[in-house]
């Protein structure tokens, strides 16, 4: 897979490097805009925002927006604002998620709610969402506004859906896919589609990028789910087991539960529903996941969506941006292989 | 003040009746739209939304939007969507506020967070905000979108500011006004301004309605602050003392604290900062508020902003809508007199 970049502080493959190269100048402007639009006379806001900015996410979503606009020879600055809006929407979601999930750590750092409290996390999330909409309005594209505001509704709807299926081991794979389609894929989809929209590309081009984003988002989430149990390796890495300890029913668990013996199902019930989720239980869970091929099959499902994403872009003329976006699919999958 | 309507289950004056009459048909469509846009296949969402809808707010903000559009002979349906958006923004704010304030009751009913939990309240709030933006986008006015998205940011910023001044008795009147201007007046202001905007009225007309909304909002909040301590009467009504028990530093408290003796200030500190806020303390607090004329002066400040709101509309040609909006100012003040 070439040189391994230390992109997210953990691991990563060179295949996202061309996306980073192509968007480097504009990402510098995105980063400036993030700082300026997270500014406020109310000190708590920039303080909390800085914590989030420093916590070093990949910024994959805004890079996708920028590259998707470049593909169609966009020459204005609207894509920089839209990319920043997308990142703000993502950040607002993380802030609210941490409150909803009562998470103490994210990427190994204390969550904002642990430092500034749930109250500030809810409200600064609301502020960032408001700022995201203001930037979209500045760009002035009603189509882009429609796409991103719809995404905002769908994401929240997906989060509520996730609440209602939480800790339910009988969740089917289809139901789980509906959750992650709303909660994760909708923003990737919107991030990709607003690129051609702001560039005035055709309906077909918009649909291609939308489909790319949706399926990339699904693949991305499923790989994340697999990584949370250590991926293909059965070594316990640093951030392994977070989903397990939070009682999250993700695809590896769904597959393993459905394929398991009555005894195994009883184990999953005690772990997920009754919070019997210590290190010994985690080790046993990982054993069951591998026994039933649940990790490998989750990665297989991710590959499936990755292929759909790849075919979505197939009709588009060859450009460095197209290659870079295709590389991102491989990058996502390669995180786990 | 004329006939007393039992408008909000507590008290109210006839002076809001003409606003209700003028907007009755369109409010029926707003209410339909509220139900349809709060719909979702995720059952929890319409369930929780119905709870909010049934809890019987006045819907003053959407009525202001409708009347403000009628004033300028608007004939489309955009104002109905914008009015619904305004109400959704308000509802989303209430949901998040109850989580932030850890409130158990609102208007004498259990808050959504007490029934469905903080998680659902945060997420359904996010959903309603997303739906609000989608409706605005459907209307297609970038100016209206700008006004309402800016309001969303400003409201959240005001809430964060309130967090940072919370329980601080040294808060000045100016600082407090900055909080309520952001947190309450900004939405009234936006609700009023989008009326002329969607109707294509002049800059001056927009500015007049914006100023009306801001100052009406300030008056409204200050009257609420006074009512929370029983208003001019020193009888303890049903919902009296909520702010006190939550340790909120509102204008009556600010005035009474600043005008008080060292002993009185020590009392306020124990009550607000150390939560010594039982019924005896509340009775003492109300005594101090009256001793220093803090309730009367809070109402005086509200009248001041009410007069500015009145003058803001002065240049506009006489219409039933103008009269109705002027009546709303009296209605607000009359709640406390």
Automatic annotation (TrEMBL), chains A, B:
What is the name of this protein?
Octaprenyl diphosphate synthase
- On whether Lipoprotein is a keyword of this UniProt record, the answer is no
Function recorded in the entry: Supplies octaprenyl diphosphate, the precursor for the side chain of the isoprenoid quinones ubiquinone and menaquinone.
Q: Gene3D superfamilies this protein is in?
A: Farnesyl Diphosphate Synthase
Q: Which UniProt keywords apply?
A: Magnesium, Metal-binding, Transferase
Q: What family is reported?
A: Belongs to the FPP/GGPP synthase family.
UniProt keyword Transferase present:
yes
What would be one Pfam family of this protein? polyprenyl_synt
A single GO BP: isoprenoid biosynthetic process
Q: Which reaction does this chain catalyze?
A: 5 isopentenyl diphosphate + (2E,6E)-farnesyl diphosphate = all-trans-octaprenyl diphosphate + 5 diphosphate
Q: What is its EC number?
A: 2.5.1.90
Alphabetized InterPro entries for the sequence: Isoprenoid_synthase_dom_sf, Polyprenyl_synt, Polyprenyl_synt_CS
Tell me the cofactors it needs: Mg(2+)
A GO molecular-function descriptor: all-trans-octaprenyl-diphosphate synthase activity
Tell me the lineage of the source organism.
Bacteria, Pseudomonadati, Pseudomonadota, Alphaproteobacteria, Hyphomicrobiales
UniProt source species: Nitratireductor aquibiodomus
């Amino acid at each position: 897979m070439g040189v391994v970049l230390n992109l997210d502080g953990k691991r990563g493959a060179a295949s996202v490097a061309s996306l980073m190269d192509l968007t480097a100048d504009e990402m510098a402007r995105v980063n400036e805009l993030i700082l300026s639009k997270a500014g406020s006379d109310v000190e708590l806001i920039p303080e909390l925002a800085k914590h989030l900015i420093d916590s070093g996410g990949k910024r994959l979503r805004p890079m996708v927006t920028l590259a998707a606009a470049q593909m169609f020879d966009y020459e204005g600055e609207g894509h920089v604002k839209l990319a920043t809006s997308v990142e703000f929407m993502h950040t607002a979601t993380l802030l609210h998620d941490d409150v909803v999930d009562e998470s103490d750590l994210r990427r190994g750092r204390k969550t904002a709610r642990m430092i500034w409290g749930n109250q500030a996390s809810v409200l600064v999330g609301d502020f960032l969402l408001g700022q995201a909409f203001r930037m979209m309005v500045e760009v002035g594209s009603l189509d882009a506004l429609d796409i991103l505001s719809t995404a905002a509704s769908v994401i929240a709807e997906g989060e509520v859906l996730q609440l209602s299926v939480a800790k339910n081991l009988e969740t089917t794979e289809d139901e789980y896919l509906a959750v992650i389609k709303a909660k994760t894929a909708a923003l990737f989809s919107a991030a990709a589609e607003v690129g051609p929209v702001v560039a005035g590309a055709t309906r077909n081009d918009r649909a291609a990028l939308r489909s790319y984003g949706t399926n990339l988002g699904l693949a991305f989430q499923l790989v994340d789910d697999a990584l949370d149990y250590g991926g293909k390796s059965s070594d316990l890495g640093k951030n392994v087991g977070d989903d397990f300890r939070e009682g999250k029913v993700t695809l590896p668990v769904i597959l393993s539960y459905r394929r398991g013996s009555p005894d195994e199902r009883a184990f999953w019930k005690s772990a997920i529903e009754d919070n019997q989720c210590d290190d010994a239980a985690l080790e046993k869970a990982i054993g069951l996941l591998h026994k039933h091929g649940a990790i490998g099959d989750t990665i297989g499902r991710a590959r499936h969506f990755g292929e759909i994403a790849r075919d979505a872009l197939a009709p588009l003329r060859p450009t460095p941006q197209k290659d870079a976006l295709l590389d991102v699919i491989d990058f996502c999958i390669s995180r786990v292989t």
